[in-house]
Amino acid sequence: MKTILVLGATAVAVATLGACSTDSTAPPVTSSSAAEPSAAATPNAATAPYASLVARNQADVTKAVTAVSQCPATLSYEDARASVTCLSGFGDLMLAGTTLDRFILLYTKTSSQYVGPVPPEIASLVASTEKAAREAERVAGNAQDKCTPITAPTCTTAVIAAAKVAADNLSKEMAAWKPYGG
């Protein structure tokens, strides 16, 4: 019953953000593409809106990454606590990826929250963060779909490992923002 409530709450939150369906056919990211900040990376007026966006999402990403990283390699539904924690972590990671991706989109495209062109010094970091957020959203959504008690046979070690890699990659992207105040 708890699993269904967690999944339902996550689904409502994702639907509220206008999340798209996940595509489980794309290959998972296997290593972080976090852009290395330049030696002269410093917060400034041009980079501040993006660093602020990352900082506002840091707690949600950290919570999701922590939960997903604690998932065992295989889920046993006899261990209800681990199962609920993992399913909740997958949902949190999907939601954190969705939120970060959507805000980057709003900040970089003409919208009511458009902040202007992405400054050149963080352009690759913005792009790699957006990519990691989308991958986290996709992979975590796939894990959530495949690892419910109803679909347990589809919850393979590869599905869980992919979610852990996506969580780790998003965490590395968030850390790459520290020099800018993110």
Compute the average pLDDT. 80
Cα Rg: 17 Å
Residue windows where pLDDT falls under 50 for at least 5 positions: 1-33
Apparent shape: elongated
Say how many strands there are. Answer: 0
Work out the strand percent. Answer: under 5%
> How would a crystallographer describe the biggest sheet?
none
Q: Determine the N-to-C terminus distance.
A: 38 Å
> What is the helix/strand order?
HHHHH
Global structural class: mainly alpha
Total count of helical runs of at least 4 residues: 5
Query: Helix content range of the residues, please?
Result: 55-70%
Word description of this protein:
This protein is an all-alpha fold. The protein is 60% helix and 0% strand. The radius of gyration is 17 Å and the shape is elongated.
What labels would you give this structure?
single chain; 182 residues; mainly alpha; elongated; disordered N terminus
Task: Provide the fold topology.
Layout: H1 2-17, H2 48-69, H3 80-108, H4 123-146, H5 157-175
In short:
Helices cover 60% and strands 0% of the residues. With 182 residues, the chain is mostly helical.
